[in-house]
């Protein structure tokens, strides 16, 4: 394991180097850590608004999937990207950290990785026990089944080589789809700030293409019933999500019977309204989302 001022690196086989940070580390041993699992093309700094807020009162683990952000890997390791391989990378990282109890928040593809991690012990041919207990899970803007091609809002394959102008256009287009038109019209300055931040992230087209393939080919439905009933699962999904349809989130409790869909209302721990897009925690105010997650984690 190597470290820098910004992040640490866990070295795994086949040239896989997983970059991670532990925010709120002063709470280790006192509060249960939450692990933020990124979606397709997402790097750990994209969580900053939520991760910094949560880190004010508990440890927060943010990391980059293999081959993106600061997590480097060999070309062959990129070719090995699947939902299962990303879950195994996360298992290796959590095993290294030796935490006994954790909370997991998976966003978009990260929600699928989180579900895959939960069912690793029940794999029919290669079961992998978890040396920790996942007490709570938040599944945000995600699904339990592979979507039909016309259901996913980020399905076009990305060319392996992009000109600077093509990169600008692609990043702007993809980021814009994580919001709804009304939000974009009312938050143009905020969007431009997010856009500039996204341009700084290392997001190789080859890795994103492999993530797209992984997100279109997982098969965990038959294992979801084995998720321990003691694991408390909250589903968050906005009606205005243009990447993963709202119906996919609503269907999760049909596959994970202990999962609960978010409660709507003005009370602490409730989401004000379901009218939000894929970039869920950029909507409303971050204190509302902190309260939603903290209330769930206190159950």
Automatic annotation (TrEMBL):
PANTHER family: AB HYDROLASE-1 DOMAIN-CONTAINING PROTEIN, HYDROLASE, ALPHA/BETA FOLD FAMILY PROTEIN. This is AB hydrolase-1 domain-containing protein. InterPro entries: AB_hydrolase, AB_hydrolase_1, AB_hydrolase_fold. Residues 33-264 form the AB hydrolase-1 domain.
